[in-house]
Amino acid sequence: MNNILKEKTSLAIMLRNGVHIGHHVNKWNSETGPYLLGQRGNIHIIDLEKTLFLLRKTLSFVSELSSRGGSILFISTMYDFSNIVEENAKKCGQPYVNRRWIGGLLTNFTHIKKKLRNPKGCSEKFIFSTQGIRNMERLPSAIFIVGVNNCRTALLEASKLNIPTIAIVDSNTSIQDITYPIPGNDDSILAVNLYCQLISNAILSGSYNSKY
User: If we measure between CA atoms, which residue out of 76, 92, 49 comes closest to residue 187?
Assistant: First the structure.
Protein backbone atom coordinates (compact mmCIF):
# COMPACT_ATOMS: atom_id res chain seq x y z
CA MET A 1 0.00 0.00 0.00
CA ASN A 2 1.57 3.30 -1.06
CA ASN A 3 2.23 6.33 1.13
CA ILE A 4 -0.88 8.21 -0.05
CA LEU A 5 -3.12 5.40 1.19
CA LYS A 6 -1.24 5.22 4.48
CA GLU A 7 -1.65 8.94 5.01
CA LYS A 8 -5.40 8.72 4.46
CA THR A 9 -5.83 5.82 6.89
CA SER A 10 -4.94 7.59 10.12
CA LEU A 11 -6.86 7.63 13.38
CA ALA A 12 -7.15 11.42 13.21
CA ILE A 13 -8.74 11.38 9.77
CA MET A 14 -11.19 8.64 10.74
CA LEU A 15 -12.11 10.52 13.91
CA ARG A 16 -12.63 13.73 11.95
CA ASN A 17 -14.98 11.95 9.54
CA GLY A 18 -17.08 10.33 12.27
CA VAL A 19 -16.05 6.73 11.55
CA HIS A 20 -16.14 5.98 15.30
CA ILE A 21 -19.83 6.81 15.81
CA GLY A 22 -21.99 3.70 16.02
CA HIS A 23 -25.74 3.24 16.46
CA HIS A 24 -28.01 3.58 19.46
CA VAL A 25 -27.25 0.84 22.00
CA ASN A 26 -30.77 -0.56 21.59
CA LYS A 27 -29.93 -1.46 17.97
CA TRP A 28 -26.74 -3.28 18.85
CA ASN A 29 -25.82 -6.50 17.05
CA SER A 30 -23.71 -8.46 19.55
CA GLU A 31 -21.54 -9.84 16.72
CA THR A 32 -19.85 -6.43 16.59
CA GLY A 33 -18.84 -6.57 20.24
CA PRO A 34 -15.13 -7.13 19.52
CA TYR A 35 -15.06 -3.96 17.41
CA LEU A 36 -16.54 -1.64 20.03
CA LEU A 37 -14.66 0.56 22.48
CA GLY A 38 -17.69 1.28 24.67
CA GLN A 39 -20.53 3.74 24.62
CA ARG A 40 -21.09 7.45 25.01
CA GLY A 41 -24.54 8.15 26.34
CA ASN A 42 -26.79 5.82 24.33
CA ILE A 43 -24.47 5.57 21.33
CA HIS A 44 -21.89 2.83 20.77
CA ILE A 45 -18.35 3.97 20.02
CA ILE A 46 -16.34 1.94 17.52
CA ASP A 47 -12.72 1.07 18.35
CA LEU A 48 -10.78 2.92 15.64
CA GLU A 49 -7.58 1.02 16.41
CA LYS A 50 -9.33 -2.15 15.21
CA THR A 51 -10.89 -0.29 12.30
CA LEU A 52 -7.48 0.96 11.22
CA PHE A 53 -5.95 -2.52 11.39
CA LEU A 54 -8.76 -4.14 9.39
CA LEU A 55 -8.99 -1.26 6.93
CA ARG A 56 -5.30 -1.46 6.07
CA LYS A 57 -5.59 -5.24 5.70
CA THR A 58 -8.52 -4.73 3.33
CA LEU A 59 -6.78 -2.05 1.28
CA SER A 60 -3.76 -4.32 0.83
CA PHE A 61 -6.08 -7.06 -0.44
CA VAL A 62 -7.81 -4.62 -2.81
CA SER A 63 -4.52 -3.27 -4.17
CA GLU A 64 -3.14 -6.77 -4.72
CA LEU A 65 -6.36 -7.90 -6.38
CA SER A 66 -6.28 -4.91 -8.71
CA SER A 67 -2.64 -5.53 -9.59
CA ARG A 68 -3.71 -8.98 -10.85
CA GLY A 69 -6.43 -7.51 -13.04
CA GLY A 70 -9.29 -8.24 -10.66
CA SER A 71 -12.45 -6.14 -10.49
CA ILE A 72 -14.51 -4.92 -7.54
CA LEU A 73 -18.24 -4.20 -7.68
CA PHE A 74 -19.20 -1.16 -5.59
CA ILE A 75 -22.65 -1.57 -4.00
CA SER A 76 -24.93 0.69 -2.01
CA THR A 77 -28.69 0.95 -2.35
CA MET A 78 -28.87 3.85 0.09
CA TYR A 79 -30.06 6.98 -1.73
CA ASP A 80 -27.84 9.39 0.22
CA PHE A 81 -24.70 7.62 -0.97
CA SER A 82 -25.69 7.09 -4.60
CA ASN A 83 -23.48 9.83 -6.02
CA ILE A 84 -20.53 8.94 -3.79
CA VAL A 85 -20.56 5.32 -4.93
CA GLU A 86 -20.94 6.23 -8.59
CA GLU A 87 -18.22 8.86 -8.54
CA ASN A 88 -15.63 6.68 -6.81
CA ALA A 89 -16.39 3.56 -8.86
CA LYS A 90 -16.05 5.54 -12.09
CA LYS A 91 -12.81 7.10 -10.86
CA CYS A 92 -11.15 3.69 -10.73
CA GLY A 93 -13.04 2.17 -13.67
CA GLN A 94 -15.12 -0.32 -11.67
CA PRO A 95 -18.77 -1.40 -11.97
CA TYR A 96 -21.32 -0.23 -9.43
CA VAL A 97 -24.88 -0.66 -8.21
CA ASN A 98 -26.19 2.51 -6.56
CA ARG A 99 -29.98 2.21 -6.93
CA ARG A 100 -31.65 -1.12 -6.20
CA TRP A 101 -30.19 -4.61 -6.21
CA ILE A 102 -31.44 -6.84 -9.02
CA GLY A 103 -32.03 -10.31 -7.58
CA GLY A 104 -29.81 -12.88 -9.29
CA LEU A 105 -27.34 -10.28 -10.52
CA LEU A 106 -24.47 -12.49 -9.37
CA THR A 107 -26.02 -15.96 -9.08
CA ASN A 108 -27.77 -15.65 -12.45
CA PHE A 109 -25.27 -13.36 -14.13
CA THR A 110 -25.37 -15.10 -17.52
CA HIS A 111 -29.06 -14.28 -17.86
CA ILE A 112 -28.62 -10.74 -16.52
CA LYS A 113 -25.77 -10.12 -18.96
CA LYS A 114 -27.97 -11.11 -21.91
CA LYS A 115 -30.58 -8.60 -20.77
CA LEU A 116 -27.90 -5.93 -20.43
CA ARG A 117 -26.71 -6.55 -23.98
CA ASN A 118 -30.23 -6.40 -25.33
CA PRO A 119 -32.38 -4.34 -22.94
CA LYS A 120 -35.31 -4.19 -25.37
CA GLY A 121 -38.42 -5.18 -23.46
CA CYS A 122 -36.77 -4.66 -20.06
CA SER A 123 -38.57 -2.47 -17.54
CA GLU A 124 -37.43 1.11 -16.98
CA LYS A 125 -36.67 0.13 -13.39
CA PHE A 126 -34.26 -2.58 -14.59
CA ILE A 127 -32.54 -0.24 -17.03
CA PHE A 128 -32.27 2.51 -14.41
CA SER A 129 -30.92 0.14 -11.76
CA THR A 130 -28.24 -1.42 -13.97
CA GLN A 131 -26.57 1.68 -15.39
CA GLY A 132 -23.40 1.04 -13.45
CA ILE A 133 -22.97 -2.56 -14.65
CA ARG A 134 -23.76 -1.98 -18.30
CA ASN A 135 -20.21 -2.91 -19.33
CA MET A 136 -19.59 -5.65 -16.77
CA GLU A 137 -18.63 -8.68 -18.85
CA ARG A 138 -17.81 -11.09 -16.04
CA LEU A 139 -18.48 -11.67 -12.38
CA PRO A 140 -16.51 -9.34 -10.11
CA SER A 141 -13.46 -10.64 -8.26
CA ALA A 142 -14.85 -9.09 -5.07
CA ILE A 143 -17.69 -6.83 -3.93
CA PHE A 144 -17.63 -3.76 -1.68
CA ILE A 145 -20.86 -2.94 0.18
CA VAL A 146 -21.90 0.18 2.07
CA GLY A 147 -25.14 -0.41 3.98
CA VAL A 148 -25.11 -4.18 4.39
CA ASN A 149 -28.42 -4.23 6.28
CA ASN A 150 -30.10 -2.85 3.16
CA CYS A 151 -28.31 -5.17 0.77
CA ARG A 152 -28.17 -8.62 2.33
CA THR A 153 -29.22 -10.29 -0.93
CA ALA A 154 -26.05 -9.12 -2.65
CA LEU A 155 -23.97 -10.44 0.25
CA LEU A 156 -25.70 -13.83 0.16
CA GLU A 157 -25.28 -14.14 -3.61
CA ALA A 158 -21.57 -13.38 -3.35
CA SER A 159 -21.21 -15.89 -0.52
CA LYS A 160 -22.85 -18.63 -2.60
CA LEU A 161 -20.33 -18.00 -5.37
CA ASN A 162 -17.34 -17.69 -3.00
CA ILE A 163 -16.76 -14.10 -4.10
CA PRO A 164 -14.83 -12.19 -1.38
CA THR A 165 -16.90 -9.51 0.29
CA ILE A 166 -15.77 -6.20 1.75
CA ALA A 167 -18.32 -4.35 3.87
CA ILE A 168 -18.63 -1.53 6.36
CA VAL A 169 -19.77 -3.01 9.68
CA ASP A 170 -21.67 -0.59 11.93
CA SER A 171 -22.65 -1.53 15.48
CA ASN A 172 -26.07 -2.80 14.30
CA THR A 173 -24.70 -5.03 11.55
CA SER A 174 -24.21 -8.78 11.32
CA ILE A 175 -20.74 -9.83 10.20
CA GLN A 176 -22.00 -13.12 8.74
CA ASP A 177 -20.63 -13.87 5.24
CA ILE A 178 -18.35 -10.80 5.24
CA THR A 179 -14.79 -11.70 4.27
CA TYR A 180 -13.25 -8.32 5.01
CA PRO A 181 -15.28 -6.40 7.62
CA ILE A 182 -14.45 -2.74 8.22
CA PRO A 183 -15.90 -1.54 11.55
CA GLY A 184 -17.30 1.94 11.07
CA ASN A 185 -20.18 4.36 10.79
CA ASP A 186 -22.25 3.49 7.71
CA ASP A 187 -24.69 6.42 7.99
CA SER A 188 -22.38 9.41 7.70
CA ILE A 189 -21.77 10.93 4.28
CA LEU A 190 -18.29 12.01 5.37
CA ALA A 191 -17.38 8.51 6.58
CA VAL A 192 -18.83 6.77 3.52
CA ASN A 193 -17.01 9.15 1.21
CA LEU A 194 -13.77 8.31 3.02
CA TYR A 195 -14.29 4.54 2.67
CA CYS A 196 -15.14 4.82 -1.02
CA GLN A 197 -12.16 7.06 -1.72
CA LEU A 198 -9.81 4.65 0.01
CA ILE A 199 -11.11 1.62 -1.86
CA SER A 200 -10.97 3.51 -5.15
CA ASN A 201 -7.43 4.73 -4.48
CA ALA A 202 -6.29 1.22 -3.54
CA ILE A 203 -7.64 -0.07 -6.85
CA LEU A 204 -5.82 2.66 -8.75
CA SER A 205 -2.65 1.96 -6.79
CA GLY A 206 -2.88 -1.72 -7.64
CA SER A 207 -3.56 -1.15 -11.31
CA TYR A 208 -0.59 1.25 -11.48
CA ASN A 209 1.60 -1.61 -10.23
CA SER A 210 -0.23 -4.17 -12.35
CA LYS A 211 1.42 -7.51 -12.95
CA TYR A 212 -0.47 -7.86 -16.24
Answer: 76
CB 100 within 8 A of CB 133: no
If one counts the domains in the chain, the total is 1
Per-residue pLDDT of the chain (212 residues; tens, 9 = 90+): 444 445 556 889 999 999 999 999 999 999 999 999 999 999 999 999 999 999 999 999 999 999 999 999 999 999 999 999 999 999 999 999 999 999 999 999 999 999 988 888 788 889 899 999 999 999 999 999 999 999 999 999 999 999 999 999 999 999 999 999 999 999 999 999 999 999 999 999 998 876 55
- Residue 23 phi/psi, 5-degree rounding, is -95, 175
Q: What is the DSSP letter of 166?
A: E
Give the three-class secondary structure for 39: strand
Q: Is residue 117 part of a domain?
A: no
**CATH of residue 161:** 3.40.50.10490
Contact status, residue 27 vs residue 49, Cβ threshold 8 Å: no
Q: Report the amino acid identity of residue 193.
A: N
Left if phi > 0, otherwise alpha if psi is -120 to 50, otherwise beta: which for 104?
left
Question: pTM for the whole thing?
Answer: 0.92
